[in-house]
Amino acid sequence: MNLSQRHLGLILIAPGLMLVAALFLYPLGFSLVSAFSKDGSFTLEWFSKAFELYSTDIVFTVVIVVASCALTALAAIIIAGTLTLGENRYIVGTLRALYRWPLFIPFIVAAQCMRTFLAKNGLMNNTFVSMGLIEPLQAVSFLDWRGIIATFVWKQTPFVALLLAGALASIDRATLEAGRNLGASRVRVLFELALPQVMPTLMVALVLSFVTMLSVLSVPMMVSGSQPTMLTVDMAFRINAYGDYATANALGVITYLISAGAAILYLKRGLSEGAAR
Amino acid sequence: MRILTIACSLAALMAASPLAAQTLNVASAGDQNMVDYVKDYLGPMFEKANPGVKVVSVGTGAGDSGSQKIYEKLDAQKGSATTDFDVVVIHQKATGQMVKEGLLDKYTANVATAKLATGEAARNALGTDVSGFVIPMFQSQTALAYNADMVKAPPSTFAELADWAKKNPKQFGYNGIKGGMSGVSFVAGWVYAFGGDAEKLMKGPYDAATKTTWDKAFADLKEFNKVATITPGNAGTLDMLNRGEIAMGPVWVDMFYSWQADGKLPPNMKLKLISPGMPGQPMYYAVPAKAGQKKLAEAFIALATSPQVQADGIVKKFNWYPGIDAANLEGKLDKAAWDKLFVDVTPADLAKNGKAFPIAPYFNDILEGYEKKVSN
């Protein structure tokens, strides 16, 4: 490659770089500065305020997102495993046709559906009551943290399952069949032979889901009441009710740190695997 | 070739349209009913009276946050020649701030109907003098809605309500302070009832030390929240009342009547304005200082605050209390439509227990105190 070609390459990626710089790096830097400064000098005041007002919500957010990720992983493994190793072709065919649907439904629509589905006298409980499974008085509302987790898992499972099923389909089937021939059950083949080979894909999908769920505003706002709630709602409230960008940005930085935590876990794993090879 | 023709005609259309029609941009803070009022009722009426004018109605979201968004837009466009909005419909808290920062036009001298609104609300927005800058669109009030089949003897004070909620756990629901103003109003009412001098909170002067006297009230409210249900939003409270999941909760009186008229609430629901009172508020019509269509905006507001529109639209159709003085509606409204507003909450109740929100700095102290001591 000669010099002019290298320049040409730089020129070609310049618009993209400019876009990233203007629309992402500049606002990011701006919010970082705003989170750490008051009247031009360095301060941690906004962080202490964020912890004073929202420490419960920070813990709540982490718990919700981690729990949602764990349940999403479980559901996605079951779906992708059935698609890859299932032997009943009707079940596999139906599942294949159905499982991607939530991918095409926006979070806000999913949240609205859950609002009527999971309510105390909502569709789900009414169905249970009419089937005689529960008494009307036993019905409880799931429109709290459980509702948020249910919505997140419902919405993110197809995404993780899609990536996972793709990865599972591309591994060498001979190893799986060897396992089956030697008498291993399908569940054992899935967990001991197939999954370890696609672990990096699963991790990538989960880290992406983790970050997505951290950033959703509509679901916690619509599904559950406001106490406790997720950090996105608090950020919106800080800005909308008080015009207080500094504390909102401090909450934003805390969110960055939480998602950075997930990214570091993932990178560490990738590095140690790379070193082992 | 065909694509080129379409593109050319589209371009021509876009270039020509500003000449052919004037557009009046109306931005409303508040729930969807506020946007619908302009979009479905007032806008078409104004367009009919002024051929060639198109009214575009946008909503900026419920509660004070909706007004905050309008404030930010006007603030950001301070340096430009014109703002995007010609008429804004805003809450009291943001109005005070906008007037102080010179973002609004002092327009009411140009609008004849301004003389019809002489109440306190037309002059004072949570402690800021706003006379000349606003005309109230309507007054509204929060009250407790309850299911008369489930609650035979509704509480009549905040103290009785606290007892009632303890005996009937999870049957009282409100939407906290992050999901709309009915919850905020309930919290303000709680502080009025248990936090000491309510008059001072509404009238001022502001004293930063006052908030330390609310600790007990907030601690009690935290206990109260354990036996209450937190609902998602103003509409969320009404939804849960409708489904029978809660038996009582604070609601906006106008939303309550509108939902009931639409059959979205059972007919056995009733309202009660408990003492020492809950806040209500007006919404204001205002014109941004740099509005592009000031003349048109003033004509629009003149129509919106005319006695006939206040009678038909505000009172009859949307169940709000009129923004202009009630005496001006005489003869424009049949008695049944007027009385409908006062079935459960009588004018005497309103006079006694219909309060204003606290002045802006106390207001912020209450919200932040709630976040610090109740919800965290």
Descriptive notes:
By secondary structure, chain A is mainly α. Chain A has a single domain (43-114, 142-276), classed as Orthogonal Bundle (MetI-like fold). Helices cover 79% and strands 1% of the residues of chain A. Chain A contains eleven helices and two strands, in the order αββαααααααααα. Chain A has helices at residues 3-36, 45-85, 89-98, 107-117, 123-130, 145-170, 173-181, 186-214, 218-223, 231-242, 245-276; strands at residues 37-38, 41-42. Chain A has a two-stranded antiparallel ribbon. In chain A, a hairpin with a 2-residue loop joins strand 1 and strand 2. In chain B, strands 1, 2, 3, 6, 9, 10, 11, 12 and 13 form a nine-stranded mixed beta sheet that branches. Chain B has a two-stranded antiparallel ribbon with strand order 4-5. Chain B is globular, with a radius of gyration of 22 Å. Chain A binds chain B through residues 52-57, 115, 119-122, 141, 143, 221-229, 233-234, 236-237, 239-243, and chain B through 61, 63-66, 68-69, 71-72, 175-179, 225, 229-233, 236, 239-240, 243-245, 364, 367-368, 371-372, 374-376.
Provide a brief overview of the structure.
The complex is a heterodimer of chains A (277) and B (376). Helix content of chain A is 79%, strand content 1%.
